[in-house]
Specification:
This protein is α+β, with helices and mostly antiparallel strands. The chain has two domains: 1-35; 40-144, Nuclear Transport Factor 2, Chain: A. The chain contains five helices and four strands. It has helices at 3-33, 40-56, 60-64, 69-72, 77-82, and strands at 88-102, 105-116, 126-137, 140-144. A four-stranded antiparallel β-sheet has the order 1-2-3-4, covered by helices on one side. The N and C termini lie far apart (86 Å).
């Protein structure tokens, strides 16, 4: 075998290796792109749970960031923070169900225990379910709070 044919064989394998690497990369990229987009119910469930966790910690400033931009444009974070009292406390809030009757509106059911700090209520939390409305605005899901 002469030197020219050895070089030709090396070049052929180099091209095959390069093509193999490119095809493998293309397969990885197309695999990532083929994942279905998240369902609105899943997005709202995650965001709603994140928000109620912040409210449980009484981190009203961060919880405010989950409110729809239309609400935030009319209400300051200070007003929102001051709208919460001290006579009740949440215990173990959990988003248990999300329904989306319209493409841009979902309802999230939040089960929570409410511990009331007043005579006659004792220390046992009162079980409660509240329904939250979430709206799609500017490509993001936001908690809707009427003014």
């Amino acid at each position: 075998m002469n030197l020219l044919s050895i070089e030709a064989i090396k070049m052929k394998y180099a091209k095959i290796s390069l093509v193999s690497v490119m095809l493998a990369g293309l397969a990885v990229v197309s695999g990532c792109a083929s994942q279905p987009p998240a369902k609105p119910q899943d997005i709202v469930q995650a965001r709603a749970q994140e928000r109620v966790n912040l409210l449980l910690k009484r981190d009203f400033d961060k919880a405010y960031t989950f409110l729809a931009p239309s609400y935030r444009s009319l209400n300051s974070v200070e007003n929102y923070r001051n709208s919460f009292g001290n006579n009740a406390a949440w215990v173990d809030p959990k988003v248990v169900k999300v329904q989306c009757p319209e493409p841009d509106r979902c309802q999230a059911a939040v089960e929570v225990g409410v511990r009331v700090a007043a005579p006659g209520f004792g220390s046992k939390p009162i079980p409660s379910t509240m329904w939250e409305t979430w709206i799609l605005e500017d490509g993001q899901w936001w908690f809707y709070q009427p003014n």
